[in-house]
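Continuing from the previous page of notes. For each protein in this section, the sequence appears first, followed by its structure tokens. Read the first protein now.
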Amino acid sequence: PGQAEMYAGLQELGVANGEDLKETLTNCTEPLKAIEQFQTENGVLLPSLQYALPFLDLHGTPRLEFHQSVFDELREKLLERVSAIALEGKVEERYKKLEDLLEKSFSLVKMPSIQPVVMCVMKHLPKVPEKKLKLVMADKDLYKACAVEVKRQIWQDNQALFGDEVSPLLKQYILEKENILFSNDISFLQNFFSPSPKTRRQGEVVQKLTQMIGKNVKLYDMVLQFLRTLFLRTRNVHYCTLRAELLMSLHDLEISEICTVDPCHKFTWCLDACIREKFVDNKRARELQGFLDGVKKGQEQVLGDLSMILCDPFAINTLALSTIRHLQDLVGQDTLPRESPDLLLLLRMLSLGQGAWDMIDSQVFKEPKMEAELITRFLPLLMSFVVDDHTFTVDQKLPSEEKGPIPYPSTIPEAFTKFLQENRIACEIGLYYILHITKQRNKNAFLRLLPALVETFSDLAFSDIFLHLLTGNLTLLSDEFALEEFCTSLFDGFFLTACSRKENVHRHVLRLLLHLHHKVAPAKLESLQKALEPTKQSGEAVKELHNQLSEKLELRKPSPAEVTEAPSMELPLPTVPTPASR
């Protein structure tokens, strides 16, 4: 089969091949003469070569080597010429030339030495004839060898084939995101949200998809359709991130063919700038509001796409951080949440983002209704927590009177817990407030609000993104891990309530302990190690993390030799007064 492929298509063009030579030699009486004649008929027809070839023979250069180098040189020239034709003259003329060339050369497409030329001709044709595309598509090796420009033409009419190409990339993308969330490097400085949007867009998957789409609107729409379908099927919000990253990657390359037809382009571009700054400033807030208010009657479907862009965790993170910042500012200004248009806009966008799945699922494209109580009761509650902190700080600084120091408030208003359980937006903002106080190393506020996290709306407090951020911020309170009360509240009161039913929580606790085990009191650490032992149902990741933790704890234990020798050494040693006690 190798030989047959090597000469594939030559006979159709009337060019002699190996089979012809074999036949000639089989049916002749003087083989040497036959070979000479075959060489003359099929060699390079240049009179001056007749004298040069014997000269090469004297130098021991095989004829094959000579012909091969001439062939390679000619092929390079031909490839250059094809690329040049694709750029010169009138459009119709240049493509006519290339089509004629393809017609003549296509029969040699399976011949490895000629294949690059045929592929190059197809690559430069904006529309390869349907018949040729079908032949390429039907042959696995040809399909693999053709340029992405040709594949795009095949894909745009073969959604299933395009889906097969895109699917592994989407799986890889989700896996990469999950690997970051479960990374063993825990830090409050470097977390899931640290890379800038521009850096994220340089990722392998986004770059590959961008290249596969090129300027083809049909392929871009197909990818968006895949992302919507997968988001609906899995509720995985990372697909929303990819939706925004892909659009902005095409924006970076100035692919106006796609950017101008995606109705979300300008909104995404503006939001992207906010994500870069991790804050929605007043000017951009006005712009974003303009886009939302500008959705015309009959075009409401665009809300489905906008909600998906706003459901991207990077967008939610920016909106939630901005909300917390606004609330703090309002405390300082003695202003109520309902009097702040900027805050109301942030809530409107959070609400649209959090409602993305329901909107795309129900195909009812209208903005979710904002619950008045969120603005009139829940946000003022959060502001009261900020006030509690200020009051406590001031009290600590005042000279203490007979009644002694005022304790930090320890009860949580029932309404707060209820909001976290029943209202998605309240829950999201509440969780970000808890991340905020942890980052400020505010242990009192953290321990006060922690019990409210055991039961939250759709278990949001046990979601990977929140736990990833919380474990990072908890490293700032690392010294508190030596205290029994703190560990009992955090581990027994929060983490361990969900470990058995949620594998991801189990993983996050182990990640945290791997990082901070040296800060935890030995007795507590031992009981945690037992409590976190993998069960039969546990996945490989949990088992691996638990093994790593056990190994670290083994290394910390004193060796038996040290333990037995210690008491005997203590006896004869006289007590030496320390410098301080003299």
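Done with the first. The second protein uses the same format. Note its length before scrolling.
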Amino acid sequence: RMRLRSGAFAAGCLLAETLGVALFLRGFFPLPIRARREPRGDLPAEPAPPGAGMVSNWTEMPPPLFKKVVLVLIDALRYDFVFGSKGKQFMPYTTQVVEKGTSYSFIAEAKPPTVTMPRIKALMTGSIPGFIDVVVNLNSPALLDDNLIWQAKTAGKRIIFYGDDTWVKLFPKHFMEYDGTTSFFVSDFTEVDDNVTRHLDSVLKRDDWDLLILHYLGLDHIGHMTGPNSPLVGRKLREMDNILRKIHVSLLLKEEPSVPNLLVVCGDHGMSETGSHGGSSEGEVHTPLLFISSAFEKRTGPPTQPELVQQTDLASTLAVGLGLSISRNSVGSLILPIVGSKTMREQLRFVHLNGFQLSRLLQENTPVYEKDPGYEHFKIAERSHSNWIKLYLEGNNSEILLNLGKKVLKQYLEALKTLSSSLSKQVAQYDMYSMTVGIVIVMEVLLLLLLSVPKALSSRAEFEVSLSPPLFSLLFYLMCLMLCAVHIIVCTSAESLCYFCSVSWLTAVGVMMLLSALMCGILSSVAKILEISRLPQKIPVVSSSSWSEIDVLILTGTIGHVLSLGASSFIEEEHQTWYFLINTLCLVLCQELCRNNFLLKECDPQHSTTVKTNSDSTRKGFEYNNIDIPEEGNAKFGKAASSAELIKRSDKWISLASPWIILIFCRLLRSLNQTGVQWAHRPDFGHWLTSSEHKSELSFLAAVSLLMIFFLVQRRCSLVSKIAMALGLLGVYSYRAAIGNVLFPWQHESKDISK
């Protein structure tokens, strides 16, 4: 047997746990789809027509469809803010253009995580960023992947940007002119947008730009602070509507008949019913996408439901509109109505370039790309396209050519949709084998820790590891062989790439040995516990490491809470788990206190014997030290004993009442704010207080709370600290009064106070 100190044992478990978590995370965060980093070659030519002597050498990119493009990105613009009742009420001009103007409207679906920086990457590269991009959202490094901004700058396009400085960090030295605003002062609803709008009048009069990007943050800040149903949302939407009208009118006035301008309106993500974002609810992933240009046909007839497209489709569509190459890593497909005014040959050229780029990306990231349905559909469409080109070059202008062109377009669109879907699935494809190995390591370490807790918390603080050669050495080698065999089978039969299969054999065997050693340690601990339980106990011994009911409850609750985080529904409603655990813990504490204060003294002879022994030993101690206690001292000693007994009784009743007081306050806290997702819309005490009708009650409660804070804390403070704290608390109340949350006693509700 080998003995380990608790510190050494904990350090070993921590190292193994770190390895398990690292393996799991490596499998959980899949690598993004990437094209090879090599110089961009010439564009592919049109599919060669069948037959001898017929050649189509169109290898150039078609000319730009639009002269100037303005991209207006409204942060957290939810789809129903434009297409729903709020749009009709607060965005009348935009609604009129959508329903009756020369525009195309879509609902763009964003992939989680729905936070700003990954969404900007998706809009400009056409790729799907992963959850790991959330980590770098606060410190956005420069974007090195092929993207629309880089393509435009390389082609000589002049780009101007105003808005969220995340763009400036992602695309440094790309903008001819820029003014970035920080996105983390979420209480700023006004200045953050005024800093963008103040440039509009001057920049719209100029002709020295080709691409103008505006990123407005105010709506997102309002959502975070007050939610999507706040009156402030309507005001902000009306402000955005006026800005869009100004831009649209200016583009129409400066437009040339030959090459029209384009206004694009979109959101990076939406917002949930509580005003937050980052998840995958419908309100968070669905955003409006509007294309407004005189190049489109005027809409007629009743309004129709906007078509659903992917957010990544914007990068491909804007690239074609600006006459640029599609980004190599883009998984988006062209939105065909935007190029619907061009000739059939140009439309086929656009979709062929998009299909060629997607099929090439699939080839570089999938070993068996030939079997992919999207690749097969693309090759079929290419053959049909070559037949169409043959008819076109022969000068055939009949109805057959038009019908065949429509058929080829349909085949291309089906291929683009399937290719895009295949590539998108690869981004969300988890490395299950690496995740499983990581989970097994973590669970084995957790089980070993649970079995060793009584020993580790004992007075000796040692953990005994049994290394019995007859049993566990043989088991160890057998488990190693079995795990190595499983590893070989998985790695030779897996179709997709697996990280754990790509590591060296020495590393893989080391991990298998660790798994086997942990399992042997668990079996050894279980065998020892069973062996001790079978031994007859002649002398009852109270173990210092025995577990009480509260210990079991805390351990069970902790494990249950951790397991509940494996489901998104439990994460969204995590507060319900805490409510249950706190209530249960309070009731068990109440039972424990009742037993200790009432039942234990009457029923437990060991307790009374212990008390008696303690008193006898105290008396003997006085006699042993020859200490004489005089009568006065004896009286004082009796008074002290009686006061101590009184304090003990009051403490007993206070301790008994504490769990019930905590339960009452917990119930009040549950009524204060409805949180989560399922019941966030239900009325609560917080909504009652913050409503305009009850501003006086909220003001009174806030004032009393701040005064209580002052009186509870000031007793231990110096005079300077008291003055500073009083001024600070007064500042808190004054700030809330300035933004309209509470009232001063002398202030009438109808009058606004000066900020």
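What the second structure shows: The chain is about 60% helix and 5% strand. Residues 607-612 have pLDDT under 50 and may be disordered. We return to this in next week's lecture.
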